[in-house]
Amino acid sequence: MNNTTSKRLSLTLLLLAGLIIMPQLGFAGNNEIVVYSARKEHLIKPLFDAYTEKTGVKIEYITGKEGALLERLKAEGKNTPADMLITVDAGNLWQAAQEGVLQQIDSPILAKAIPENLRDPDNNWFGLSVRARTIVYNTDKVNPADLKSYEDLASDRWKGKLILRTSKKVYNQSLVASMVAKHNEEETSKIVSGWVNNLAAAPFSNDTKALEAIAAGLGEVTVINTYYFGRLMKEKPEHPLAIFWPNQDSDGVHMNVSGAGVVAHADNKDGAQKLLEWLAGEEAQATFAGLNMEFPANPAIEPDPLVAAWGAFKGSPLNVALYGKLQSRAIILMDQVGYK
Ligand code: FE
After folding, report:
1. Which residue of 36, 233, 270, 326 has the fewest CB atoms within a 10 Å radius of its CB?
2. Ligand 1 geometric centre to CA of 143 (Å)
3. What average pLDDT does the segment 38-64 reach?
4. pTM of the predicted model, to two decimals?
5. C-alpha 292 – ligand 1 centre gap (Å)
6. Domains by residue range for the chain, with CATH
7. Tens digits of per-residue pLDDT, 289-298?
8. 66 alpha carbon to ligand 1 midpoint, in Å?
9. pLDDT tens digit sequence for 99-140
10. How far is CA 302 from CA 4, 135, 200, 255, 320, in A?
11. How far is the CA of 108 from the centre of ligand 1 (A)?
């Protein structure tokens, strides 16, 4: 190979590498916004398309697992192409803020649209949809009058009848963290230990499997995010399952969020902030929540009729940022009482 051929080959390889990388990361133009999303493509794409249609602003995005996206943001640092991070669970949002990959956004629009308990007190992130983690029971086996609270699932009444998802999932870490916030660690330990003693089977890897176990009669009660119930019942309406809203005469149902923040090293901070404000507003909120059968974070917006049909309930007023703050204590506590 002579010199010229070798140079040409190198140039071709460089160009090819560029072509391969470009569509994935998007070397965003001035006006474009790049989003890293732990929310799946089918839940965000319709919104991004609508935003582009309305404003002409292009949005490039990648989707991935929460942990992987956070690691990627940390590794990329100042060189990140990302302007916005969308992720699920306040525990993950809090973690992202702790790691310094988000920046504070002081926006009167966001402050007005999103209730105070559903956003970071330091304005690094904002809840955009609410997921209620509630009790579901087998309607052939349980009289709902016997159900009360998350805490009561530790009582002897539920011995050998409780099904739970694994404690490795952030949803349960947040639930237990919320209990540490409202009781204390000692009291919470007793409750979680009671749950473990009442298990009908080893913890399941996801909420849907927990629901299937209840439907099959392996257990009688479980704790899940309502959108998994909604999805399963759409597919299998014959399942003998119903939702119960716990803690209605005390602190209310455990509420969590999916949400977003503007990336600390965003090239297009203003663009990302405008998109975030739009996502929190009237036009986007019904779709953002409705596509996943969640509740809008903006209280001015009605939930999807299918979701509203599950009935009104009182939700916990705790600030969801507490779940992140107390997460490590919740994990240790669950480990200590043998909740796998
Ligand atoms: Fe989920």
Report:
1. 270
2. 28
3. 97
4. 0.88
5. 9
6. 3-130+256-301 (3.40.190.10), 131-254+313-336 (3.40.190.10)
7. 999 999 999 9
8. 11
9. 999 999 999 999 999 999 999 999 999 999 999 999 999 999
10. 66, 23, 37, 17, 21
11. 30
